[in-house]
Design a protein that fits this description.
The structure holds two protein chains of two kinds. By secondary structure, chain A is of the alpha+beta class. Helix content of chain A is 53%, strand content 19%. Chain A has three domains: 209 residues, Multidrug efflux transporter AcrB transmembrane fold (Up-down Bundle); 87 residues, Alpha-Beta Plaits, CATH 3.30.70; 124 residues, Gyrase A, domain 2, CATH 3.30.1360. Chain B folds into two domains: 213 residues, Up-down Bundle (Multidrug efflux transporter AcrB transmembrane fold); 75 residues, Alpha-Beta Plaits. Helices cover 67% and strands 9% of the residues of chain B. In chain B, a hairpin with a 3-residue loop joins β2 and β3. Classes of the chains: A alpha+beta, B alpha+beta.
Chain lengths: 448, 310
Amino acid sequence: MSFRAGRILFAIVILILSGLLAWFVLSTNGEGNRFKVKLGLDLAGGTELVYRADTSGVTGDTQGALNSLRDVIDRRVNLFGVAEPLVQLEKSSAVAGAQEERLLVELPGVTDVKAAVDALGRTPVLEFKLRAPIALEINGTTTPYVPTGLTGRYLKSSELQFSSQSNGGTGNEPIVVLHFNDEGSKLFEKITSEHVGTPLAIFLDGEVISEPIIREAISGGTATISGNFTPVEGRDLVRNLNFGALPVPITLISSDSVGPSLGAEAFHAGLIASVVGFILVSLFMIIWYRLPGLIATAALVIYVLITVALIKFVPITLTASGIAGFILSIGLAVDANVLIFERMKEELRAGKGAQEAAKIGFGRAWPAIRDGHLTMIISAVILFWVGTSLVKGFALVFGFGVITSLFSAVFVSRIFLQAILPEHGGRLWRVLCSSGFNLGRVSNETKN
Amino acid sequence: MFIVRHRKLFFILTGMILAIAIGAIAILGLPLSIDFKGGSLVEVTYNTERPSLDTLHESIDQLALGEVSLRESGENGVVLRSRTLTPEEHNTVLATLSQDGAAMLTEQRFNSIGPSLGAELGIKALYALLAVIAAIMLYIAWAFRRVSRPVSSWVYGLIVVIILIHDVIIPAGFYAILAHFTGAEVDALFVVALLAILGYSVNDTIVIFDRVREHLHTNDEHRVVEDFEVTVGKSVTETLGRSINTSLTVVLALLALVFVGSSATVDFSWVLLVGVIAGTYSSILLAAPLLIPLSKKFVATTAVSKPKKK
């Protein structure tokens, strides 16, 4: 098999694979399809909330407390009724001062920020604190209470009961019974055994709701709160505690919500811009570079297919900035082709045959293409590292695009070109392979 | 050779554009968005007739939210910017904007960012810009390590840094002017655009430097002694077509983004567009010609044969 026959076969294989890729891209757009493009909140509409988690009060297993915080919020989000929510822990950037623990909540389709914040945040933070003999100063505020480390985090469940004469009440008052988990039970027993006679205050959302005096060590992991509840308040408290008392307090530090119509408009405009950008770039390539330009356009189609397939497969959440990155990358994807074709043209002018010109063109253009693409990959990686979700969307598409374009513009277009070009070729091939206003004369024009 | 021979003229020309950009930044300033300083942004569109901004200002001012800016957006929209609002305050603001229900509106966007988060993003952005510039310089110095005559490969890296700083200042200056007229603000996307420009615009410079590298190599092989100025001039001329065409394809794609793209990315696309154009002319008119005066300053000590002067 001759060199060229091999290349033709290779080109046909690439075309078949591209066809399969096109089938994958086009057939996976149905509602509920696993590979349907995942749209970011700025395109689909929805709300993103970022909370700061205050872990200063956590003694011991901080990560465990944060994980249970995530689980609790996850449960509340589900109660709120959101399709495909995202709840994840994040750390603040290492470069910006003190590390902060954060909780990121994405609620697609939700635009009522207040209702969402209420649903997620309006739940009690339960803490147990001992009254100190003298007032202490903690964090600049004077308080007579000392944290014990025992919080809602150690709560297994709670229930509403009504007091009877036997358990010390005046009878028929609502009391809330707390059941601690194993760890909590031990801690509770330790605290009560060491501080008999000291008042143990129960804090709910930072306020004292009950301050019983420890009479004896309590084992078994059960405590009761007998505040002055009405039965309704008692019931709400129990429900909130059971849905999960927050193991660590959280503060809302950022929220971003986009209405569905604004998002849809942005998505639509992005699609049109992609198509227009693609057509403009292709037209330029075909008009200026003729046959190689046509091949570059074919490679560009394959580039688009691969990139869209990657976005679907990875999956990369598509944002408005991600679409911008995609369109930018269409312009970039043919850059390597321009470098190669210009180089080819020089070799043709020097009187080389079409095949040989193509071979030298690809070889000589490579160092510049490699260096150029690597610097772009460097900036994409750093962009990703800076990453708010918005920036990450752009960096991912941009980075993947640059790598993919190396494949499409260098590898694919070389195979195609070698499959099409004859070994030598007459005037016609020279015209086809020239560019701009040149009609393919072999000129010995001075290069300065 | 034209460009290299008349390099002083082009240095002055590009220097003037640079001075205008720096002047625009210094005089007009770059207004920071809530992404960096924290605060809230509320965007609504009215389903019925839009109340006048004066009317809205009057009622909003009674809420005591500190300094509030109101701007018209699109045909029937209003954008409100203020300090960071709580969810409760946000609802009050919405009620006030709708004139207590008299004017029907749809909320398009609510973005609220705490001040500390904004400051953090600012620091990150700065670090990222510096990191990209440093990484690219190191890479270029490494990629051109074999090319040490007549200039050390670090000179190529140094020029790239000068060019990169130039390529960031020009679009920033443009943005200062754009912001002055349209009320655009420096947001996270602006930083993204600058970082993308850094990664991209160095490409054209690399193409020219790569050609210089190749010529120096073949001259060495064939033992041709050529004035460095001639080598650089030749390289610029030979790569002129591709430098312009590679940028042209990107410019075409960006034009689509500017004129038919989402309104969310219009400012972003403008910055990219100006940055790509600046990146192209800086590579041709500054980067390669700068090699010549710098080659005279930093003659590599390992040089075997110094380039002779004409």
